[in-house]
Design brief:
Ubiquitin-like (UB roll), globular, Enolase-like, domain 1, 20 strands, 5-stranded mixed beta sheet, 491 residues, alpha+beta, Uridine Diphospho-n-acetylenolpyruvylglucosamine Reductase, domain 3
């Protein structure tokens, strides 16, 4: 067995602290399928097969800047080849970390009666284990967020939350020797060259640099480009689609960077949502609510911002805010690079201005400017982990009581994420007051003809779209006044 990660015909990862080598599996085999069907490790459960319920949660550890990083992920939609060069921890792995005894997370769940039927319990344990390894003294909000991607129909969550507080008292981290071994092995299997798996029913390529990636796309422009897999995974688990050629972006070092200039932040195509959101929050603190409600930690740990943008769903949460902020996409095909305003990427439902072999290499987001007023809102049936009925973002500048610039964008209102052109014109140059807001709301009915579906009626969407504009006015112009004091009728 080679001592490094450059065996291009095999998937190599750590399992229970040992190097695990896999040959001859389909590239679309999920981590969950491999655990349950191939090696009969059945503690990890399948509930939804789409990353919603959390029963399949596992933890991936990898070296980032020579330090171990632990992150929870949904194994039901993570393709096995994408964990090449990483360490996989399942609920069965935890006994090795505590001398064969229950891990403090597991012991706390027992003591606090955090399990009833038990189906969801391994997933909760692994989400809490990731928290345990990452944050020493989490507050209640951090605990709630850590398990936001795990569903339980039995306990009512109270005993699970109690277990999350209790686990630190049961035992502190004392696995330095195990972590040193893990770091050494991860260094040994680190992937440094292109990985290519070719079997009769599929081909998977993981380039290690941008030149390898562009060459592979030039040779096979119809390939499926895989980043986080939080959408592509469902093509396999729900639609049962065949993906004969997959090109994975996660190992391309140039695409895993976040950089900044005086004008913009640039977020590469393989940067996770977790890392991208952290960078955006430093620049725009008013993105906090939309980011918190975007998706669960396991989804954000796997998914990418550029993948969300490239997918271009009309109900995707990131695009209205990014469009509103004036973001651009960096598109690449071979050595050719072009910069396109994000709103121009979307031509129609699931139609984008992308040539064969061209891909979204990065997103550029302008830096915050003095005096900029910005908000982003999401309306959905559930507060967390739900698809929006309406998503709205707005950015304006007010000079001497008048709106000098305005950008307003919505999701869920059209076949694509879309700016509200007439609404913007009603705002620009006008006094920033309730009358102007009323006229801008009236213009929304000319900007959009929303549909009725299971999430909302067309009339509800238009009403909510207008009410969110009212909310923005109250929050920015009269932050100490309740919204009900204003009469927003135009005129």
């Amino acid at each position: 067995m080679p001592a490094n990660g450059n065996d291009t015909a095999a998937i190599r990862f750590l399992l229970d602290g040992d190097v695990h080598v896999v040959h001859d599996v389909s590239p679309t085999t999920t981590v969950l399928q491999y655990l349950r069907d191939h090696i009969r490790r059945c503690g990890t459960k399948e509930g939804c097969a789409e990353g919603d319920c959390g029963a399949c949660t596992v933890v991936l550890a990898e070296l980032v800047n020579d330090e171990l990083r632990y992150r929870a992920t949904n194994s039901c939609i993570q393709f096995l080849p994408t964990i090449d060069g990483k360490a996989l921890l399942t609920v069965e792995s935890l006994k090795a970390l505590n001398g064969g005894r229950l891990h403090p997370v597991q012991q706390a769940m027992v003591e606090c009666h955090g399990s009833q039927c038990g189906f969801c319990t391994p997933g909760f344990v692994m989400s809490l284990f990731a928290l345990y390894q990452t944050i020493d003294n989490p507050d209640d909000d951090e605990i709630s967020y850590a398990i936001a991607g795990n569903l339980c129909r039995c306990t009512g969550y109270r005993p699970i939350l109690a277990a999350a507080r209790r686990m630190y008292a049961v035992g502190r981290k004392n696995n330095a020797a195990w972590e040193q071994r893990l770091e050494k092995l991860l260094t040994a299997i680190r992937v440094t060259t292109e990985k290519r798996l070719a079997i009769p029913n599929g081909c998977y390529t993981a380039p290690s640099n941008i030149d390898e990636l562009t060459a592979r796309l030039a040779a096979a422009p119809e390939s499926t480009i895989l980043a986080g897999g939080t959408d592509v995974g469902l093509w396999v688990t729900k639609q049962h689609r065949d993906l004969p050629e997959i090109i994975y972006l996660g190992n391309v070092k140039e695409l895993g960077r976040i950089s900044q200039t005086d004008e913009y932040l640039e977020i590469g195509a393989s940067v996770s949502l977790t890392d991208a959101f952290a960078a955006l929050l430093e620049e725009y603190s008013d993105l906090e609510e939309i980011i918190r409600r975007f998706a669960s930690p396991p989804i954000c740990n796997s998914g990418t911002l550029c993948g969300n943008v490239a997918n271009g769903s009309p109900i995707g949460d990131s695009m209205p805010a990014l469009i509103c902020l004036g973001a651009s996409v960096v598109l690449r095909k071979g050595a050719d690079v072009r910069i396109l305003p994000m709103e121009n990427l979307y031509l129609d439902y699931q139609r984008k201005d992308l040539a064969p072999g061209e891909f979204v290499a990065a997103v550029r987001v302008p830096r915050w400017r003095e005096g900029q007023l910005f908000r982003s809102y999401k309306i959905s049936k559930r507060f967390e982990q739900d698809i929006c009925a309406v998503c709205m973002a707005i950015s304006i500048d007010v000079v001497d009581g008048h709106v000098s610039t305005a950008r307003v964008a919505y999701g869920g209102m059209a076949p694509v994420p879309k700016r509200a052109d007439r609404c913007e014109r009603a705002l620009t140059g006008a006094a920033w007051n309730p009358s102007t807001v009323g006229k801008a709301i009236q213009a929304l009915s000319r900007d959009f003809r929303p549909i009725t579906d299971v999430r909302a009626t067309d009339d509800y969407r238009l009403r909510v779209a207008g009410n969110l504009l009212r909310r923005f006015f109250v929050e920015t112009d009269q932050p100490d006044q309740p919204a009900t004091v204003w009469n927003y009728a135009a005129g």
